[in-house]
Amino acid sequence: MNTKILIIGASGFLGYSLFQKFSKNFDILGTYYSNKTKDLVHLNFLDQNELNSIISEFKPSVILLPAAMPNVEYCEINFDDCWKYNVKGPLNIINLLKKSNIKLVFYSSDYIFDGKNGPYSESDLPNPLNNYGKAKLETENNIKSNLSNYLIIRTTIVYGWERNRKNFIYRLIDTLKDHKILKVPKDQIGTPTYVEDLAEATLQLVQKDQIGIFNVVGSELISRYQFSLIAADIFDLDPTLIIPVYTKDLGQVAARPLNAGLKIDKLLRTINVKMSTPIVGLKKMYNKISELKK
Question: Which of 197, 186, 205, 207 is nearest to 256 (CA)?
Answer without folding.
Answer: 186
